């Protein structure tokens, strides 16, 4: 069985993230979507909320071979723990490759895990979690940029700020 890991902060999960996850689920027997907790960042949504939202969105999409979890450790340690041999990362045209290549080389050195880069769907490549939060902060409509369940959560989070 081939197991892949799709890591990210997913704060919040976007339509672009879901596209990469759903496409990965077609290629691998099992895909672990891992919310990577970074102590250096202050997320808008808690780790538990991010995990729950991703689970709900993937259930709605019918992805049955996807496991959603989180880690505050190295992704390579998570890969070893679950027997994953591949990390899948989506790439947009905004310099993602340069940012991800160094990490891919480190992951291969640390754990022998290869990184597969999937190009973003051109319709979605402009979407990022940062852009979604910025649009929402300024009262813009993020429908279609994120799963439906995220839209009211963003509004609620922003009214609490």
UniProtKB/TrEMBL annotation:
Residues the entry annotates as binding ATP: 9-10, 17, 90-92, 100, 124-130
Any Pfam family the entry gives: CTP_transf_like
Keyword match Cytoplasm: yes
Protein name: Phosphopantetheine adenylyltransferase
GO biological process, one term: coenzyme A biosynthetic process
Subcellular location: Cytoplasm
Cofactor requirement: Mg(2+)
Annotated keywords: ATP-binding, Coenzyme A biosynthesis, Cytoplasm, Magnesium, Nucleotide-binding, Nucleotidyltransferase, Transferase
Species of the source: Bifidobacterium oedipodis
Residue span, Cytidyltransferase-like domain: 5-133
């Amino acid at each position: 069985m081939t197991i892949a890991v799709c890591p990210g902060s997913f704060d919040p999960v976007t339509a672009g993230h879901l596209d990469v996850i759903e496409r990965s689920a077609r290629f691998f027997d099992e895909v672990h979507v891992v919310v990577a907790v970074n102590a250096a960042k202050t997320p808008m949504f808690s780790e538990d909320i991010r995990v729950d939202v991703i689970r709900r969105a993937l259930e709605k999409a019918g992805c049955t071979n996807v496991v959603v979890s989180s880690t505050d450790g190295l992704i390579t340690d998570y890969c070893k723990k679950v027997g994953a041999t591949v990390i899948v990362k989506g790439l947009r045209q905004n310099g993602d490759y340069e940012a991800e290549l160094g990490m891919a080389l480190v992951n291969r050195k640390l754990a022998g895990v290869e990184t597969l880069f999937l190009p973003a769907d051109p319709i979605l490549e402009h979407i990022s979690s940062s852009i979604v939060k910025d649009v929402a902060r300024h009262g813009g409509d993020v429908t279609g940029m994120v799963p439906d369940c995220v839209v009211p959560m963003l509004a609620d989070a922003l009214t609490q700020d």
